[in-house]
Write a structure and sequence with these properties.
Elements lengths: L6 H17 L3 H12 L11 H14 L7 H8 L9 E7 L7 H13 L19 E7 L14 H10 L6 E5 L13 H11 L2 E6 L10 H14 L15 E6 L1 H18 L4 E3 L2 E3 L6 E5 L11 H4 L58 E6 L4 H13 L4 E6 L6 H4 L4 H19 L7 E5 L6 E3 L10 H12 L13
Parallel strand pairs: 3-4, 3-5, 5-8, 8-9, 9-10, 10-11
Antiparallel strand pairs: 1-2, 2-4, 6-7, 11-12
Helix pairs in contact: 2-3, 5-9, 7-13, 8-9
């Protein structure tokens, strides 16, 4: 009888073949970029090394296709677990589902009280199920080799071995990027491993629910459940309670959005004086030590000018018409009932928990770190920084000249990436150890020379609050409820 390949091997081979057929059409554009770079005939060649320029151009060509693949196919390709090898500890865990619905009730109340003028009056927020949220405890494994596999021990024992190598109490609650519909904690292990190594701490990397199957506020609920799980471990947890002063919310891109969204939800819960009934006990919802966001996606509807003006420096595709996402039909899209956005229902497109740059206040927030490049999201990130300063929040901002979106995770050989990880980790450590010493700073890191130049926060964003509201309303084709009144953000 003929031997049959294991199902997992067949599945992996199919995924690799899909990847090959996706990559092949991009080769001519890559060759063109190489030639223009060598001849110094492209603007990026003045700032970027050839290798980095090719990677950025390849990703741009790959992502900005006129005929996108079905959502489920693209999503499936990014969820392939590459396996766990090398200098990393991973302990896979999942939270218990609380017997009460209080965590969801409190979150929905915060969403409702924050919607203001940006949600249609009769808009009703979805009510997601409370589920068991999976996560990966990640730490650095110093004595391992690149080929080392995890020992065949229980997840609890893996956690215990990881903790033996932690030299600090830093705990990073990490949310991966991927536009809320792609990626997984397994795809971000290189990032979480590096942060664990640089801080001497550990990372709790969350497998939150993905859109379009689970739109807003499912991921936010999973994030809040994960935070409470750290603070107040349910029965059977492998970890003891973690003090909020040792927890920093962090993430990249959509994960940066989720970390800041969780912070805004916690702020609103506290403004309302609410607590949570959690496994039979009334629990406070404290602020974390800080938030560290790498290229956070704040403007969910992609309305700000840099989404177009910075395209030449980035690989992210230009925004498409929200009324026509041009995605082929498959099992998970279009949604039923239909909506314009993968992540959120139409009535809530401009809710300040979705479009974070429209929030009224960040007052009382802990210290916040934001970094970005010359990317499509630059306008919204710079606006956030200027808004945080106005609201009295300590903020550390780093802008990397000519760098694309989340460059530190993509251009792993670039010196800018090493500098970014150092700054990112340094802030996280300081937020836990001595937050009172964090002073607001605003820095540009020059390409190639790596020279650091102070910049004025007054010059970060040229836009007014009214500009932001107009951009957002124009983008979704909705008229403002207050056309003659400046926005109260």
């Amino acid at each position: 009888m003929a031997e049959h390949k294991p199902r997992s091997a067949t599945k992996a081979a199919k995924a690799h073949l899909e990847l090959v057929w996706t990559v092949l059409p991009q080769i001519p554009s890559v060759i063109r970029v190489v030639l223009l770079h060598i001849l110094k005939m492209s603007e990026p060649s003045r700032y970027l090394e050839l290798r980095d320029n090719v990677i950025i151009s390849f990703l741009r060509s790959l992502l900005d296709q006129p005929k996108p693949q079905p959502i489920s196919k693209t999503q499936r390709m990014t969820l392939q677990d590459p396996g766990i090898k090398g200098r990393i500890w991973v302990s896979k865990v999942s939270s218990q589902v609380p017997p009460e619905t209080s965590v969801r009730d409190v979150l929905l109340a915060a969403i409702d009280s924050s919607k203001g003028q940006f949600v249609i009056a009769d808009g009703i927020c979805r009510v997601p199920d409370i589920i068991s949220v999976e996560a990966e405890w990640t730490g650095y494994r110093a004595a391992a080799k690149r080929s080392s596999e995890l020992p065949a021990i229980s997840e609890e024992d893996k956690y215990a071995e990881m903790m033996k190598e932690c030299s600090s109490d830093v705990t990073i609650l990490y949310f991966h990027g991927g536009a809320y519909y792609l990626m997984d904690p397994s795809s971000h292990r290189p990032t979480t491993k590096k942060l664990a190594k640089l801080t001497g701490g550990r990372v709790y990397s969350v497998r939150y629910r993905l859109a379009p199957q689970h739109p807003f506020p499912s991921a936010l609920l999973d994030a809040l459940v994960s935070y409470l799980t750290l603070l107040y471990p349910p029965p059977g947890s492998v970890h003891p309670a973690v003090d909020a002063s040792n927890i920093v919310f962090s993430g990249d891109s959509a994960g940066g959005h989720l970390s800041l969204c969780l912070l805004q939800a916690v702020l609103e819960i506290r403004r309302r004086g609410h607590s949570v009934i959690w496994f039979g006990q009334e629990r406070a919802v404290p602020l974390p030590a800080g938030v560290a966001a790498n290229s956070p996606w704040l403007d969910i509807v992609q309305s700000m000018p840099s989404w177009h003006s910075n395209h030449k420096w980035d690989y992210l595709p230009r925004p498409r018409d929200l009324a026509d996402l041009q995605q082929p039909e498959d099992a998970i899209w279009p949604a039923q009932p239909p909506r314009k956005h993968l992540f959120i229902d139409d009535d809530f497109l401009l809710h300040p928990f979705a479009c974070l740059h429209l929030n009224a206040s960040w007052e009382d927030a802990p210290p916040i770190y934001v970094c970005c490049g010359w990317e499509c999201l630059a306008d919204e990130d710079k606006w956030l920084v200027s808004k945080l300063v106005k609201d009295g929040v300590a903020v550390v901002f780093e802008e990397y000249e000519a760098m694309p979106h989340v460059f530190a995770a993509i251009l792993d050989k670039a010196p800018q990436s090493a500098r970014c990880f150092d700054g990112w980790a340094r802030f996280i450590s300081q937020a836990c150890k001595s937050p009172q010493d964090i002073q607001s700073s605003f820095t540009t890191i020059k390409a190639k020379t790596m020279k650091e130049v102070d910049i004025s926060v007054k010059n970060l964003s040229p836009f007014t609050e009214e500009d932001l509201r107009k951009f957002a309303y124009d983008r979704i084709g909705r008229k403002s409820s207050f056309p003659n009144t400046p926005a109260k953000l």
